[in-house]
Amino acid sequence: MLRRTLLPLAAASLLLPACNKSGGDGIIIGEFASLTGKEATFGTSSHEGTLLAVETLNAAGGVLGKKIDLLTEDNQSKAGETSNVVNKLISKDGAVAILGEVASSRSLEAAPICQQNGIPMVSPASTNPKVTETGDCIFRVCFIDPFQGTVMANFVTNTLKAKKVAVFTDVKSDYSKGLAKFFKEGFIKAGGQVVAELDFNGGDKDFKAQLTAIKSAAPDAVFVPGYYTDVALIAIQAKQLGLSVPLCGGDGWESQTLLDIGKDAVEGHYFSTHYASDSSAPGVQAFVAAYKKRFNGKMPDAMAALGYDSAMFLADAIKRAGSTDSKAIRDALAATKDYEAVTGKIAINAQRDAVKSAVILQVKDGKFKYLETVAP
Amino acid sequence: MDWLLQQLINGLALGSIYALIALGYTMVYGVLRFINFAHADVLMLGAYAAYFVAPAVSSVVPLPSLTGAILVSLISVIICAGIGILIEFLAYRPLRKRPRLTVLITAIGVSLFIEFTCQHSAVFGADTKPFPKLLPEHDFHLGKLVVSSNDLVVVVTTLLLLAGLWFIVQRTKMGTAMRAVSHNQQAAALMGININRIISFTFGLGSALAAIAGILYAMKAPGIDPLMGVQPGLRAFIAAVLGGIGNLPGAALGGLILGLLETFAGGISGLSNYRDGIAFGILILILLFKPAGLLGKATVEKV
């Protein structure tokens, strides 16, 4: 009896790995993304960018004469789920490299796993410095929060002429805490004063308690380094309370959802991000056209551009490595000096971070409008 | 001083929402002696019902307007009352004779089932949807204080529903039957009360309350997602316990206290991180000294 049940199982387990790796002679690349849940629009954008890149590469004959097999897993924007899916991608599916993800908290969960297995990981949009500090296998194609925080601190000081700011941080998010910290340091260095520091929990719906405290501190501007859903609600409630100073934030703002929920309450506020889709650079316009053609006229946001860049950047490294060996890919990634990406020229530094420029956008007439570019 | 008064207004507005949700928890508990954890998810369904009904209604009555808002709420309330009755019929009724713990676990199961089914992209999807404006909004300025019309609507609705509910339970035939069932199901059945009908009615009424709470909550923070009920649901449950579970005015009082505590703790620079910790710490202290809740009566369990 026992033998009868065990035999098919044993046979199946012998077959399984063979099945999974027999997806042809393709290069298996794993991707984890928040396709559902709170940061779903970010995850979906970056996934679509990645998908477009892989399709473009495969249509042109693939890399090293092999097609790329992109395996995508959803972590539902949840803590804990990422380690499950990344473990699966590496040990069961045999991915040679991992792409992902937007949120720093969840990239931080995946990074140690990739590092332990010696699999190179490229994050499209995790800007928290700690992500690449995990080890020498972890890379990113976006700038990091110390840069982004300083850019916004200088913008608030020089362009908005603010002397006093309040900082309103999402304590649940590594991204938000990191960005807030670097903004504060930059702003104080530039001679400004932080008059109020308040916290919220990502997913909260009522922010009036904190906003009332911020209002009574009378700042010239409020820095809110959160994600778009929370920021939209914060903007609405700030407007209701008569807190009419500019709100500023980082790349976590850039989503159509911010405009859909926030409507006129988000009008006039500023944030820093990775690229502007109305930029005239030829690489940008070609990408925007291809993306719109592939995804029914949808405008690519920064996350889509970074998702595209992460896959293209990885493919470029595989080409230069001339092999699909994880170690060789890692060395090629680390040696990147002058890669021309959609979101700007990338050089990988000793910390495996991308050194590149940022742009500042303003919400105007229900659209994101390009304001200025800040070089590193 | 302005700061303090403004926080008082914020706290009352938030507390009224908690109170409204807590009424539903406490009413079902009062009759059936079990916590309907799916209440928070019916709240979410109420908000989604309004989200889908609003475009249809706006082609008849322009939105935002008072008549439009009432019409949208009414349709959502009917939908949710139906869902509530259905949940009871499918999930709880077959377990009526089982130990209460079984029903409680089932309630948690129903709650998770609704949450995660609705997150599927074929149902609502997990992303946040913009909630349409139902009522014209206006912010009233009294000196430096700001009161938004939405907050007034919340407070007034909560008071009206509390009074209405009290009237139904204390002054109508249905309410008398509900109290009889709550007291002793068997004896009530022997007196000719149709137990199934009373319990269905209780669930329908509770879910109708949840639908209204969901719509008001969505009006306050106009971004809705399938997990939007979890956080206020938990708070409201605690508010119901704080006020003395099973006691209607107690639930309202508990909601207000919780809302005020959260607002004052959240409005202090440097402490806002610990807002829930402070609010719930104080609650634990209250319950240490009044274990049956503020307005609850201590009962002796028969062994």
TrEMBL record, chain A:
Residues 29-366 form the Leucine-binding protein domain. Keywords: Signal. InterPro entries: BCAA_transport (IPR051010), Leu-bd (IPR028081), Peripla_BP_I (IPR028082). It holds the Pfam family Peripla_BP_6. Belongs to the leucine-binding protein family. This is Ethanolamine utilization protein EutJ. It comes from Brevifollis gellanilyticus. The lineage of its organism: Bacteria, Pseudomonadati, Verrucomicrobiota, Verrucomicrobiia, Verrucomicrobiales.
UniProtKB/TrEMBL annotation, chain B:
GO terms for biological process: D-alanine transmembrane transport; L-alanine transport; L-isoleucine import across plasma membrane. Pfam families: BPD_transp_2 (PF02653). It comes from the Bacteria. The chain crosses the membrane at residues 12-35, 42-63, 69-91, 103-125, 145-169, 198-217, 237-265, 277-296. The keyword Ribonucleoprotein does not apply. Belongs to the binding-protein-dependent transport system permease family. LivHM subfamily. This is Branched-chain amino acid ABC transporter permease. The lineage of its organism: Bacteria, Pseudomonadati, Verrucomicrobiota, Verrucomicrobiia, Verrucomicrobiales.
